[in-house]
């Protein structure tokens, strides 16, 4: 290297770092901005549903002051009981602060999992992408519980990689008690016979049930399992914010019978193919396990009947893990380009979606499906080299 170029290279390196720091600080304002809000619609659903419970009303049925119906497992009510002791406005800000903390810790742990220092240039660049990810901002603005679930799933991955199987199962169970979808990740320890994960998962569920059942009552649990839970697999909507496969199809197909037939066939084909590949190729080797986890998370978002845009904050996990896989295997730029396209499609938000063609209103779905196909391709490519 020409020694005369060294000062220039150092100067450019410092400049790049300063630019990244400035952009990171500005981007962090997007994450902190929800603390200034006075209303958090989805948090209102948690808060007032729990209020209904304390007043002897059915939290799943009686709307009261809620933004919408309460569609979460009963333990979520138990989690929000302490917050009902204070006013809605104060409770909303406390919950938002907790959600922000969970999001920041999730990004830190994701970077740790893929061996990137948070304040390296690459670490700051990835953090900037995460902070400007619309589903993340949407989650915080709505007062959603998604970031707590995100942290639980990431801790499941983190402890699995460190062979701390009991902790891994505990955090997967905690995530599944807040949202149903993380249960699909049990596929990985199940086919790898990781009984400590499975046993700790079951133990946490049993313990929480024994604690909450006497407090919440049998009617709450019965209503959830007999009415609310089945509705999660059948009810859907064609609105822009539903970016699942069902939402995409509803925006294209007007005939309900045709929609249902096509959706059921595609759901069955995609689910069967994914589970077959996961069971056939799943190994405890870290690189393959992480690809399997990525595929399963993306699959859950695609096939769920209703995947609102804020749910796609969970897609940060497969995006980060896929980036790490490409980087570690020194793949060429076309792989980064494909991953970048997936990120952009999911990260965007259309303020006036009705102004563009209906097909393009499913950009988040297309981004998620591209990532799903991409990870399946990487998984099969990796297996062929073993």
UniProtKB/TrEMBL annotation:
GO-annotated cellular components: plasma membrane
Subcellular localization: Cell membrane
GO function term, MF aspect, one: hexosyltransferase activity
Transmembrane domains' residue ranges: 14-32, 67-88, 94-111, 140-159, 166-191, 197-216, 223-241, 261-279, 286-303, 309-326, 333-350, 356-374
The name this protein goes by in its record: Mannosyltransferase
Topology of this chain in the membrane: Multi-pass membrane protein
Provenance organism: Candidatus Woesebacteria bacterium RBG_13_36_22
InterPro entries: GT87
Predominant place of localization: membrane
Similarity comment: family membership: Belongs to the glycosyltransferase 87 family.
UniProt entry keywords in alphabetical sequence: Cell membrane, Membrane, Transferase, Transmembrane, Transmembrane helix
């Amino acid at each position: 290297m020409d020694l005369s170029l060294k000062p220039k290279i150092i100067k450019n390196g410092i400049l790049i770092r300063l630019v990244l720091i400035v952009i990171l600080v500005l981007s962090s304002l997007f994450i902190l901005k929800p603390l200034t809000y006075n209303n958090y619609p989805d948090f209102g659903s948690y808060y007032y549903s729990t209020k209904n419970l304390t007043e002897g009303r059915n939290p799943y049925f009686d709307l009261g002051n809620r933004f919408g119906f309460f569609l979460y497992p009963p333990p979520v009510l138990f989690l929000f009981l302490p917050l009902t002791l204070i006013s809605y406005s104060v409770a909303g800000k406390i919950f938002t602060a907790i959600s922000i903390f969970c999001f920041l810790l999730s990004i830190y742990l994701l970077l740790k999992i893929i061996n990137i220092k948070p304040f390296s240039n690459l670490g700051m660049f990835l953090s900037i992408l995460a902070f400007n990810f619309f589903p993340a901002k949407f989650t915080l603005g709505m007062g959603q519980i998604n970031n707590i679930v995100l942290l639980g799933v990431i801790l499941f991955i983190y402890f699995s990689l460190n062979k701390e199987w009991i902790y891994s199962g505990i955090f997967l169970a905690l995530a599944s008690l807040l949202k149903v979808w993380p249960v699909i990740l049990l596929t990985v320890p199940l086919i790898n016979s990781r009984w400590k994960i499975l046993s700790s998962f079951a133990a946490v569920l049993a313990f929480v049930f024994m604690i909450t059942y006497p407090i919440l009552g049998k009617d709450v649990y019965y209503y959830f399992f007999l009415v609310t839970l089945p509705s999660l697999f059948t009810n859907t909507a064609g609105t822009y914010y539903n970016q699942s496969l069902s939402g995409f199809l509803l925006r294209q197909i007007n005939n309900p019978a045709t929609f249902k037939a096509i959706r059921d066939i595609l759901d069955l084909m995609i689910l069967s193919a994914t589970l077959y590949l996961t069971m056939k190729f799943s190994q405890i080797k870290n690189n393959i396990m992480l690809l399997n986890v990525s595929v399963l998370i993306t699959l859950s978002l695609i096939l769920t009947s209703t995947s609102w845009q804020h749910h796609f904050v969970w897609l940060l996990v497969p995006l980060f893990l896929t980036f790490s896989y490409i980087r570690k295997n020194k793949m060429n730029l076309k792989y980064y380009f494909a991953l970048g396209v997936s990120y952009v499609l999911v990260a965007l938000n259309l303020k006036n979606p009705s102004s563009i063609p209906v097909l393009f209103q499913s950009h988040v779905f297309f981004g998620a499906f591209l990532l799903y196909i991409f990870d399946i391709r990487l998984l099969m490519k990796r297996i062929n080299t073993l």
